[in-house]
Amino acid sequence: MSLVDSPSLSVSSTPATSTRLPSEAYVLSLASTSSGYAASSSAPSNSIHLFDKADFRKIRDWVGHKDTISSLRSVANIAGNVRESLATCSKDGTVKIWDERSGSQPALQMNALVTSRSRALLSCDVSLDGLTVAAGTDLEGDDASILYWDPRNPAAPLRVHGSTHSDDITAVHFSKTQGSVLLSASSDGLVCTSNADEPDEDEAGLHVGNAGSSIAQTGWISGPAGTPSVWAGSDMETFSTWSNELDQIHNFDIRQPTIHRQDLTWVTDYLIGCHNHRNLLPGHDNDLSLFVGSNEGDVAWITRPSLSDPNTPWSLHRMWTTGHLGIVRSLLWDESHNLLITGGEDSKINVWSNPSPFANASTENGSKRESDSDAMDVDEGMTSPSRKRRRD
């Protein structure tokens, strides 16, 4: 499996700006709001840090949770209120919605109470209409559940689907085109789609795919026909793509595409995460960019023009080097401002210039997706395979 350097390949070793979280905390997740960038930190603070977009000055800290923040997401709509906010979930068994106007307290809180017990939450998402919140629990005994809330009545889950997965539920993502369809992934190796509106969990399941190894992260892919497909990254650093009905298309080791030349070397050690563009990339049958990392703290951006043709080589577009020491945990591409933000286990947050070489061509030629978001968030639940150190 080949990796070729793009004609527009560039290498940067100096971030535009940089900051560091206190207490040597890991930067677990990054997300974007209209006015700022948010970062979630590991223990001991378990906090959310908000930075101004203009100069990356810290605006505020939210003491977010009593335990590890397992997911941080940007939300455009919650409980019917169209306003940008942040959603977090935690191993403390809560989902919280944060709004800059709500001061130091969350604007909304949902508790993961199942049969009078609180459950640790590893992943969460909010539906496009803002009327359903989903979260995946860890495995407790024989049970791992997807919980659903109506945020207008947040006191208790609206329904519980307990038979979708049999191990930790590491990722949940609502479809951007089919509002009630939820994609989920688990340490049991399964990627699943289900109907979030179905009260009978025996009838809720739509499709199931088995990757054969623990899934750390997953997400949707948009294609030219408008039918979504799925990607998944495993703890064993395999990367797979799946049809809309979760038939496996490809499965390979993400570390295989490499470049070894006298003038250029890139070797991938792990997948950081994926980014969905507003439009299909020119010359591509998909809207997906992958960001991969090295154990030394370097980052590379790669794409594949065809995710359906196994003979298509990967393209290396950009590299960011020497910005971090060790594992890069989280990454956010703000395409509107041509910035890439990276967060690592070294407590550093780096802001890099990242104008897309596809920008003009995408506007002119790319197919518009029905719905999109600038932000890509990668959280501990998505990027904590066994080779990475946990910070709880």
From TrEMBL:
WD repeats: 62-108, 321-353
Chain segments carrying region Disordered: 352-392
Keywords: Repeat, WD repeat
Protein name: WD40 repeat-like protein
Amino acid composition bias (Polar residues), ranges on this chain: 352-365
Listed SUPFAM superfamilies: WD40 repeat-like
Keyword match Repeat: yes
Pfam family, one: WD40
InterPro entries: WD40/YVTN_repeat-like_dom_sf, WD40_repeat_dom_sf, WD40_rpt, WDR89
